Predict the structure.
Amino acid sequence: MMEQVPGALGTSASLALRLGQTIFCSASLLFMCLDVEFYSYTSFSYLVTVMGLVTPWSMSLALIDAYSVFINCLPRQPRVLLIVVVGDWTLSFLSLAAACSSASVASLLVNAGNSYCPTKLCSRYQLSAAMAFLSWFLSFASTLFNLWLLPSL
């Protein structure tokens, strides 16, 4: 009998992680893109680009998880799981870098005063960075669960 790791691909916990990633990525994109002034700062553009990559990745894996949960068919091929682990690992570190850079620039703009960034706009940038951090946390947790399962296949 194969080991059942909670949070690994094809489980209901993985579906919850993927849905959370999708929600937080979409929220990060929404808060960042409510105003088009984010193009003035490279780190904000980088966050939008990375969240634009993470959102379809998480949505497609959420669909795979939903199919696996409702059909009771676990996808346990080593190559498929390896692709998921590498994709999650890569996008996890990209989203961490984007969240950190956006949070630091938003903090710098808040400390610089209203001349560079109005309070309402800066608070949206900070909220977008916070959503990106939450998305990164769920993505990294999913990576670790799948990495834990990979040697047992």
Summary: The chain has four helices and no strands.
